[in-house]
Amino acid sequence: MSDSLTYELGAKERRQLASKLSDHRDPTTSVRIGDDDIALPPAAQLAVTQFLSQLAVGSVHVLSDGDKLTTQEAADLLGLSRTFVVRLIDSGKLPAHFAGTHRRVRAIDALNYLRQREERLDAVAAINDADARLGIEYR
């Protein structure tokens, strides 16, 4: 993810941040940058809160919708093998374009595929739960 930024804290810093986040229940409404306090709109408040919460437990990768991913980076993001991602691209299930001879996937397309995949898996799980409640066995 050549255009993405990666942030990570040491174990001590993560513990301190997690402690401060658990003590502070209200979402961040402003941030201090240098000597200035900057008021955050609600969407930014949520983003900052989520970013800090994730940073407290591990590394955080930030990428924009238009960032171009290699097939390996897309595979890592999706939790799939690179070979499977190439098959998804070649079958038209995951949009991509070629940069020379290399496939590139926009981050937003990979995230949309991930969301759709999770929705499909949730639907299958709901069907399985309904079948189990009705006593229908899977063969």
Describe it.
The chain has five helices and seven strands; from the N terminus they run βαββαββααββα. Strand 2 (30-33) and strand 3 (36-39) form a beta hairpin. It is extended. It has helices spanning 11-23, 42-55, 71-78, 82-90, 107-134; strands at residues 5-7, 30-33, 36-39, 60-62, 68-69, 97-99, 102-106. The chain has a three-stranded antiparallel beta sheet with strand order 5-7-6. A two-stranded antiparallel sheet has the order 1-4. The protein has 139 residues and is α+β, with helices and mostly antiparallel strands.
Global geometry: extended
What Rg do the Cα atoms give? 20 Å
Rounded mean pLDDT is 86
Question: Ranges with pLDDT <50 over ≥5 residues?
Answer: none
Number of strands: 7
First CA to last CA: what distance? 43 Å
Beta-strand fraction estimate: 15-25%
Q: Provide the spatial order of strands within the biggest beta sheet.
A: 5-7-6
Alpha-beta classification? alpha+beta
Q: Could you estimate the helical fraction of the residues in percent? A: 40-55%
What is the N-to-C order of secondary-structure elements (H for helix, E for strand)?
EHEEHEEHHEEH
Given the structure, what is the number of helices? 5
